[in-house]
Amino acid sequence: MTETPLPKDAAYNPICTVDAVLLTIEGDCLKVLLHRRPKAPFEGCWALVGGYIHRDEDQGVLEAVQRILRDKAGLPALHLEQLQTYSGPKRDPRGWSVSVAHLGLVPRAQLELPQDPDVLLTDVEELPELAFDHRTILDDAVARLRGKSAYSTLPASFLDALFTLPELHRAYEIVLGVKLDPSSFRRKALDRGMIEDSGEMRTDGSRRPAKLYRLCAPAQTFDQTFAPQQW
Amino acid sequence: MTETPLPKDAAYNPICTVDAVLLTIEGDCLKVLLHRRPKAPFEGCWALVGGYIHRDEDQGVLEAVQRILRDKAGLPALHLEQLQTYSGPKRDPRGWSVSVAHLGLVPRAQLELPQDPDVLLTDVEELPELAFDHRTILDDAVARLRGKSAYSTLPASFLDALFTLPELHRAYEIVLGVKLDPSSFRRKALDRGMIEDSGEMRTDGSRRPAKLYRLCAPAQTFDQTFAPQQW
DNA sequence: GCAATAGTGTCTTTTAGACACTATCTG
DNA sequence: CAGATAGTGTCTAAAAGACACTATTGC
Prior knowledge:
Two copies of one chain form a homodimer. The first copy, chain A, is of the alpha+beta class. The first copy, chain A, has helices spanning 61-73, 134-149, 165-176, 182-191; strands at 15-26, 29-36, 46-47, 49-52, 79-88, 97-105, 119-123, 163-164, 195-202, 210-215. In chain A, the strands form two sheets. In chain A, strands 1, 2, 3, 4, 5, 6 and 7 form a seven-stranded mixed β-sheet that branches. In chain A, strands 8-10-9 form a three-stranded antiparallel β-sheet. The termini of chain A are far apart. The interface between A and B is large, with 40 and 40 residues.
């Protein structure tokens, strides 16, 4: 099966990288951060943000991703969680490889993107061709976000620390891809102890000012879903 | 910070392994398969089942775990999913390492364990000390099983292909760690299209024989939970 | 006042939980 | 028939969804 038999029980370490699916909301759409690969393999092809682990400074794969995002997208701390690990002998032409993929969510305003034609923030529905199996990773990331958002505070990660209830409502609609009844949404968000009144108000050009809320806990999950039943 | 500076952007591949948290139900308890490590590091210490990737035969980390389980526990195909990847410079004394952990569920009857004092099937509530960060991995695995079981068919993976409704009911109770009302449970399982009548019956020593059901789909998730509200 | 968005109240249907009840087997 | 487990029916309370309604701003 192989031309150069290897000692079966010896340590063999595949190529090991980390990747991040960095998502944000812009213009009522879910968007993802891509960059053009400067070198082979897949030179010139769009890809997720990623890189190698630095053994001397990274305390884990999460920290490696944070460092890479800081260097490549000038990002502060944000919601970041491990997604899944992708592996196999063929996904990287250089050989057997492992990539630990992560899901990152940021408010658009906190994203400081360089003026660089090799950096792209694009709608997840209008993707260019991607390097490696990055299309699969991205699809899995969006599916995870959708699934988890139905019963968690995840979409609030796209908003600033203080936000209005209609803003939260809109974030859930964009992420879940469905219209949600404003009244039911408000009731659920408040009754579940998801958000608390900050005492402040916001008057952003619109007509009636809205109360500003904040999350009670940074990340929370619920038994009942925000999404409609037959979703 | 490091004594031997490394080229920061060069490929550096950590030690890479796969591990499996293999769970089953025996005697109304959740149990996990452990084995005693034959060599350093952690020689003689109990650990999860795991090993290295074989680049010439494994098509991915999942297949690597399947191969290792086949070799070490004589296991056929079973419910196996990726759990999470654990990493860092200190979890393995040999250096920066990555372990892709998996969650496996098997009916007890399908587990063929060798008569070997270095293989142990133990209650997850009564664990010996474990090597590496395997205790953390195991705790995460049980938490994932619990969480997912509340709104999925996962506990059915502990049963044979044909099972009675009371058996399914009991599996959910053991996994979730709570009493569930038999009537409500039955209604939910049937109304959601989770199981279908096989037409057969089982008369295992008890009094009234019970209908045998099978899953409609191998793995399914639901909006509503099987667990009680304030769980 | 009008337009527009923020926020409330309430009615109907569905679902959950509790639990009493019936059914079918073994001995 | 008694005991035990399998399975059904039904009542009540909570939650979801729909939607009419009121409130507060800018112009």
